[in-house]
Amino acid sequence: MSRIGRNPVPISEKVEIDITDDNFVTVKGPRGELKRSFPAEVRLTREDGQVVVTRRSDEGRGRAMHGLSRTLLSNMVVGVSDGFTKTLEVQGVGYRAQLQGENLQLALGLSHPVSVEPPEGISFTVEGPRIHVQGIDKEQVGQVASNIRKLRPPEPYKGKGIRYLGERVRRKAGKAGKVGKK
To answer: How many CA atoms lie within 13 A of 126 on its CB side?
Structure first.
């Protein structure tokens, strides 16, 4: 039995959840609405203020989908009630980020500024060298943050680039030079 899958998903009063017979779930909350279709190998049932995810059989795919389905449903509930945020840091001389309308304008040491347009449901905020990617869909927030990081990943010699907040970049020594040679 999946340890994660057997935990029920608590539903707060401000969140409405609708489950159809074919495992299509709609979750509405103060921040918005999310919809997702869940695999047929799991069964979703409401029980006194929480949703319980059970699997229909003990076959391989059913076991694999059990914990995943519970986590996806939990992320939907948290997303519509609280939302998700990923924070990126821009490090390097001349590297900076600023908002231009809703778009994110990045100066990354290239010959031109890079503009990132937020997809539907995602917003950016900039505080100095930090970029906050916010939204209600955890998967989408993570993907947009990853795409921004890919524009200029941190390099190991000087540490310049875009990194996640708290990410440790392994530094390399660089050239040894001509030590002791004549």
So the answer is: 15
